[in-house]
Amino acid sequence: MRFGILGVVEARDGAGHIVALGGPGVRALLGVLLLEAGRVVPAEALIDALYGEEPPESAANALQARVSRLRRALEGTAEIARVPGGYRLAVEPGDVDAHHFRALLGEASGLPPADRLPLLDRALALWRGPALADVPALRGHAAALEEARASAVEERGAALLAVGLAAEAVAPLRALVRAEPLRERARALLMRALYGAGRQGEALEVFDEGRRILADELGADPSAELAAAHLEILRAVPVPAAAPAPAADRAAPRLPARLTSLVGRDADLVRVAELLGDHRLLTLLGTGGTGKTRLAVEVADRSGGFAVFADLVPVPAGADRDVVALAVGNALGLREVGVRPSGERADPVERLRRELDGRAALLILDNCEHVVDGAAGLAARLLADLPDLRILATSREPLSVTGETLWPVRQLAVPAADDADAARAPAIRLFADRAAAVRPGYSVTGDDLPHAVAICSALDGMPLAIELAAARMRALSAAEVAAGLGDRFALLSRGDRSKNPRHRSLRAVVEWSWDLLTPEERRLAWRLTVFSGGFREADARAVCGADPEVLFDLADKSLIARGPDGRYSILETISAFCAEHLAASGEEPGLRRAHAAHFLGLADTAYPGLLGRDQLDRLALLRAEHGNLHAALRFAVRTDAVLGMRLVGALSGYWWLRGLHAEGTAAARELLTGTVEAPPGLEEEWAACVALVAMNGRPPAPSAELMRRADVIMRRISGAVRRPFLLALWAIAAGPPDDHAEQVELHRSGGAFADPWSRALMDLGDGMMHLFNGDPVAAQPPLKAALEGFTEVGERWGMATSRDTLSITVELAGDFEGALALLDSALELVRELDSHSETGDLLLRRADILLRLGRTEEAARCYDEAEAQARRAGMPATLTDLHRGRGDLAAALGRWPEAERRYHAALAAPASTWHSQRSRAESLYGLARAAEVRGDLTAALTHARQALTAAATHPMSRYLTPSIRTLLTRLPPLS
């Protein structure tokens, strides 16, 4: 079967008959697949090509429908395969006219003019009209093909001139100039062709016309090439060959063969091609194993022009410009052919310049980092002398040549474990593709997907590392590979034997970069591994004594990366390698202590701002340093309990505001082990540890003695509290005290509520106590005062909690819509805090109110959202209460068996905090109602009595008491 896009899109069967394809949508789809014949085209790329930047919501379904129609049209002749991430048209590139056209151009490149002509004629004969003429959506691809066609016409014209057939070149060149009047090379060739055919006057008219058009359209003068042709004609210079031809006995250089498909680099391919069109020197930057070479070769292959690939790895480190030029000459097939009379070698740079002169060539300088000065010198010289040359370099640091443009080649994107489209992420697609090569038929299934995500995440999305890991799938499962990455250098120690030794193991990849560092750079590199999750320059100076210049040098050499926000980061693989050197250096204990002290200072400085208008800025700062703060905490817990408690105290407010309730629990529990009393001066920090463990809701809970001792500390607080948020944490952990009024008065008289935030917290507590005592009307004034106080200082958690609690008073008054409005405003605030736990709790409350309003579908969606948030935050108490809520929903819909299952699930969870008692009372009441419905009155009576007892233990569940008593009056007493 033959396919065509050099004209209208067409397909022919084996007999040469045109296949009926259908409408423009199907033809456009075939056009895109033919542009990538035999390669996988991601579904996203197909949608982008067919619909542009604003695809309809139904684009994915529409694409599937088009694929089905195209399959029917091509049935029996060509297969469209659905593969992970996209589609592939199973045809050879040679069966598509556009690819055949480019192949002929590549074959012609570098041949003598007489040998080039037949190939160029065959290539241009493939054209039936404008490329992709009936597919307007692909006009960008069509323009690239038309440009290649125009270049081929120019090359053919130059070849005709070179062999003395100037007259034959006139017509096609004139047609090209008419179509593209600003195309100066074509105009210069037409002038020479006319002059060579004895039509000097017409040639000069063509120049005058071009000069006028350039002035009118661009305000520019004729190019040097056009002016030179004009001068030659005026001087009656004999017609020259258009370009020097290489020796007839030497074949054009070839690009390295691609043995695997390029996965996950669609955006890079497009952007690098665009940059090469606009800039003559482009350097692909990145650490080892990111796929710079593979990307460069693919870009060159798709360009279809004359390309030279020079691998500089064999060149000795530090080699100068001449030695690098010799390596490039070898890639071109140049050899030394004797010596000059003086005995000196021919200048390799000059020989290279002569060889490339007049040729539109792309030179790939691969792996420049160890010869960066020599490569830079050669690039500068060649670019200055050869205006038609473009250079694509790959390196771990820039060449730093004037005019150089940089394109960082990043690691492949790794999805989150819960991402619905995780299997289609570039890193996962690469892992699946390479694993299938060693284990035929393998695909990333639902069971393997979490392990594949863990593998790709641990390897930073580094393509080479992922390929090495996938190769181990020959003998191991994905779970075993993931587990083995604790010692990644041992696991990934055997790769493709055909590759350069530095790419056969993960350690070799990193060592290649390490060996190129100076002693000062290595010392700073291993010191920087004390950071976790990135760092700022100021942090590196404070903790590691970093010289900013050395830091910049490491970034230039791709050992670390500098983000747009100025923060630096280190890949996990690089960090693991450098950490080995840190451990051997003897500096680690001192550096880790300096790191912990530095970030304790940062947390201490940020704490006051958490309780005011700068809250979001302070949270953003602490969130950016989340990894460092927890690395500091882990070190302190192991080595210095005092430092650990100070960190817990400084971070407890941050954890709560962000909804990270479980974050510090493990550290707090370990710090409390064997510590039954607070260390002197750390009473608040010790109490914060007890509160965090108590609030977590997971066993083991703090002992009664620990809770008693912490309560004593909280009652003894006098004067201003150093960590005001501790008051809120303790109230939540311990529940309402019996002597609330006395305690508030004691703290007020001692000055504990001197600051505006603490005074608002006192009002919030007063309002809650009125609620707990069953008086929602009396609760409203202090709650409104609390909301006003928190609003005045600009603190979002307090505002949200005040509105949430006010919504309860409104709900109890029967105004459910008013309660929803207050809850929605509270939700906006906690979402600004990015608190999943608070969001989950408020969504659960919202769902309960929607259910009381009879809006069951909305309630069901709200319960689903609440569960997603609670799972992200790791909140077992909220998940337990969700069983109760979904039980109420099932009951409202008359699905009583499901309701009973849900209530039993809620009761099966341990009642770990005093808040859990409300859910327990509501679930028991639900079971009593369910038992009554199915006629089991004995069970209904038992559950109702248990519910009545449970309701009495939690002040907010007392609203159930009238309903439970009403149910009891309907039930006969037990005999």
From TrEMBL:
Gene3D superfamilies: Tetratricopeptide repeat domain, Winged helix-like DNA-binding domain superfamily/Winged helix DNA-binding domain
Family recorded in the similarity comment: Belongs to the AfsR/DnrI/RedD regulatory family.
Protein name listed in UniProt: Putative ATPase
Organism: Actinocorallia herbida
Transmembrane segments: none
GO MF terms held by the record: ATP hydrolysis activity; DNA binding
DNA-binding region: 1-91
PANTHER family: HTH-TYPE TRANSCRIPTIONAL REGULATOR RV0890C-RELATED, REGULATOR-RELATED
Keywords from the named record: DNA-binding
Any one GO BP annotation for this protein: phosphorelay signal transduction system
Domain spans labelled OmpR/PhoB-type: 1-91
PROSITE patterns associated with the record: OMPR_PHOB (PS51755)
